[in-house]
Design goal:
Order of helices and strands: HHHHHHHHH
Helix content: over 70%
Number of strands: 0
Number of domains: 1
Shape: elongated
Largest sheet: none
């Protein structure tokens, strides 16, 4: 497989991942609300969904995209409910500011964050269009073997690490600053509104 194909793929992923969208916004919001662990885990959920669509594309199982309808709705509804729960928790933090600024991540909370991240690309038209429609512009999918597939996944994971580090890192710094200034409760209010907006966008698609 030509090297320039991988370079073009990486460049396209950079645009896809860094373009402002509900996934990035939600990742930042989770960081502001619950800390960097949740931000990275939310991003890990997003990249898991993206790898799912990549796998569907390279294996020629594009018909799965048409058959995912009912399951997609279940995933979407569960994802929306989790986002609404996040919004409620953030709103409660706004109403009753905690004396302890740092929240200790729980396994259940991280699992919910991860699933919410997965729900985003599985029900989002942007990654579906990219992997199922635009991917053949970079690769001859019939010539993709296991080595090429693993190289593509490695590139995706590398771009995820870069994207998440930038977004979560900046959000974490902002979170610390807000805590020091004693105005994090207003960031919690904004976080609640962002989660509500992302949930509404997810259910409307």
């Amino acid at each position: 497989m030509p090297v320039d194909s991988f370079l073009l793929f990486a460049a396209a992923l950079a645009i896809l991942f860094f373009t402002p969208g509900p996934g990035n916004v939600a990742m930042v919001a989770r960081t502001l609300d619950a800390g960097p662990a949740h931000g990275f885990i939310y991003g890990a959920g997003i990249i898991t969904g993206d790898i799912f669509w990549l796998t569907i594309a390279v294996t020629g199982l594009t018909a799965v995209a048409d058959r995912i309808g009912p399951a997609g709705w279940i995933i979407k509804i569960v994802g929306v409910l989790i986002l609404l729960w996040f919004a409620w928790r953030a709103f409660q933090s706004f109403r009753y500011p905690s004396i302890v600024a740092i929240k200790t991540p729980s396994r259940l909370g991280l699992a919910a964050t991860y699933f919410a991240g997965i729900a985003m690309p599985l029900t989002n038209p942007k990654p579906i269009i990219f992997y199922l429609t635009l991917l053949p512009s970079f690769f001859d999918l019939e010539g993709v073997n296991m080595q090429v597939y693993l190289a593509m996944v490695a590139i995706m994971l590398g771009m995820y690490a870069l994207t998440a580090t930038v977004h979560v890192g900046l959000a974490h710094k902002a979170r610390n600053w807000l805590q020091k200034k004693g105005i994090k409760r207003w960031a919690d209010a904004l976080t609640a509104l962002v989660m509500l907006a992302v949930a509404a966008l997810l259910i409307a698609r």
